[in-house]
Specification:
Elements lengths: L13 E2 L6 E2 H5 L3 E6 L6 H12 L1 H6 L2 E7 L3 H14 L8 E3 L4 H5 L14 E6 L5 E7 L7 H16 L2 E2 L10 E3 L6 H7 L5 E4 L2 E4 L6
Parallel strand pairs: 3-4, 4-5
Antiparallel strand pairs: 1-2, 3-6, 6-7, 8-9, 9-11, 10-11
The chain binds benzoic acid (BEZ).
Benzoic acid binds next to α2.
Length: 214
């Protein structure tokens, strides 16, 4: 196991899931992927997290993102638990949950942090782009459920900044002003790329309306 860092290729694997055996890269195809681990089935926070992911499925689909969850619980446990999630969270889990009982994926992605728990996966998040490059990682403890709207916000930022020479400031939400990356200095290029204009707060801090919004 090596530490996975931003810019690395997401390791490929084959593992069982609630949607059958999954060969990860093939399954991902040309979509973005949200790969996220949870500590254990039949636990309260995890139940709300998977329910929330299912409730946001239209938002993930709009961004061409395929969610896939993972814990080290076996497939039969996932199957029973999904019924609980659907019933208690009033939703339909429509994404795969990897059954990583042999810890293939947990090891590859360093999802077990032994000083936190020797057996359960922590709450790891990997956002992976269509070229299989890891673009975002973060890790939460078992006691803290993640904010899935924040995950959507990060994906919005990644997709926007991949196609425009901008970056997104603190607490940015889709539609807010953005900042121009420092590498764009040529006045002709600035005029062409930012026809709505921009405000120079400091030479390194230039604010412009979000380019892909009318
Ligand atoms: C939970 O998902 O609720 C949970 C899982 C492991 C430890 C603590 C909470």
């Amino acid at each position: 196991m090596t530490t996975l860092r931003l810019g690395d290729i997401a390791p490929d694997f084959t593992q069982d899931s609630t949607a059958g055996k999954i060969s990860f890269h093939e399954w991902a195809g040309d979509a973005w992927v949200l790969l996220f681990s949870h500590p254990a089935d039949f636990t309260p926070v995890c139940t709300t997290e998977l329910g929330k992911t299912a409730a946001l499925s239209a938002e993930f689909a709009k961004r061409k993102v395929k969610p896939i969850a993972i814990s080290v619980d076996p497939l039969d446990a996932h199957g029973t638990w999904v019924k609980d999630i659907n019933e208690t969270q009033n939703t339909t889990v429509n994404f795969p949950i990897l059954a990583d009982a042999d810890k293939t994926v947990a090891s590859l992605y360093d999802m077990i942090h032994p000083n936190a728990s020797t057996t359960a996966t922590v709450r790891s998040v990997f956002i992976i782009d269509p070229k299989k490059v890891i673009r975002t990682t973060f890790t939460y403890p078992a006691s803290t459920g993640r904010n899935f709207n924040e995950i959507l916000r990060v994906i919005d930022s990644l997709q926007l900044t991949d196609s425009h020479k901008v970056a997104t400031p603190a607490d940015w939400q889709d539609g807010d002003d953005v900042v121009i990356v420092p590498s764009v200095q040529d006045p002709a290029e600035l005029a062409e790329r930012f026809p709505k204009g921009f405000k120079v707060v400091r030479p390194y801090l230039r604010v412009t309306p979000q380019p892909n919004k009318s």
